[in-house]
Amino acid sequence: MTTGHPELVAAIASEIRSSGPIPFVRFMELALYHPRFGYYMRPPESGTERIGWSGDFYTSSDVHPILGQGLAKQAEQLDRLLGRPDPFTVVEMGPGKGLLAKHFLAARQPGSGSFGRRLRYVLIERSPAMRELQGANLLHGLCEPGRITWVESLDDLAARSVVGLLFSNELPDAFPVHRIQIEQGQTQEVYVDYDGVRFVERLGPLSSPELHDHLTRLNLSLPNGYRTEVNLEALRWMRQIARSINRGLSITIDYGHSAQDLYGPDRAKGTLLCYYSQMTSEDPYIRVGQQDLTSHVDFSSLAAVGEDHGLHVTGFTNQMSFLMGLDAEGMIAHMDMEGPEFRAAIHLLRPEGMGRTFKVLVQHKGIPHPELDGLKFKPFFGEALTQFESNVLRS
Question: What's the predicted TM-score (pTM) here?
């Protein structure tokens, strides 16, 4: 078992020697996004892939195009609700290999009138390696010049410039997180040190007033020994989304929970997981820069931050209900029920798998509360966000 990518390990160890133990959030930022050696920033080794069936993990887009097709249907309904603006802008944040964009763009209906002509598709990606992969999947006869553009961050979009849809699939789970632990009734933060051979953990005081303020708003009552994650980057990201939208929707698809469930007694060790070659572990200090690191999303906090910035909760559902509302049955009706395509599509809908594991948070801004096809079916947890957000999270 290796410590990780040698140059990355050396870079992190050098920072620790220079400044002392670093908060785990900084360790995770370097492990995933170091400009030269981070997991997502450098190209995969020749003959390998990072995302996909033969990679470290796979996403819904690797399984079947049905999610992209469903999102395209939802976008066309939104286009009608907005009065068919020109342009209608779709912003995909964290587009992975570009497969979801490919499926979305390929799904435009021939009878959709001017939608295809007015559509502009923006991909937000800071990794040069991932941009190159996305371009290879998208720019070969799929779209006319100028249809697709790339920017590095939401900050590159002018305030209130988007009329249309912003969405992400499995993005905030990969944002760097603070890790905290309760010791003798006090909230401590996890720091990372280097002993000359391996990375080791230390506990210390909270590293930022922002972290303290957020924990105060959460008002958690946790027992001694309880460890969990706090994703402040996701909150900053949601504020950026709210800033970017003039009129339209934000759709966030990821695995996660309401805050009440996320910080419940059955998750006393937190949710941080590492993915390497389709295997999971709970040790982020091996294969540093060579494995993915993720944690479950706190959808209550995302909803609360959005509300505070004019981005209102339209609905909260799961992937199965979202796609069923967008006529998933019709999309798979022509498939051979014994064939691999049908089995792949069903994998995204299966209640005991991705269908319920993945949640969908829909928020709107600049339009009256829209009635959306993707929110036709209400899961049992549908009111969890608004109840928790109104009772606890609003400052």
Answer: 0.94
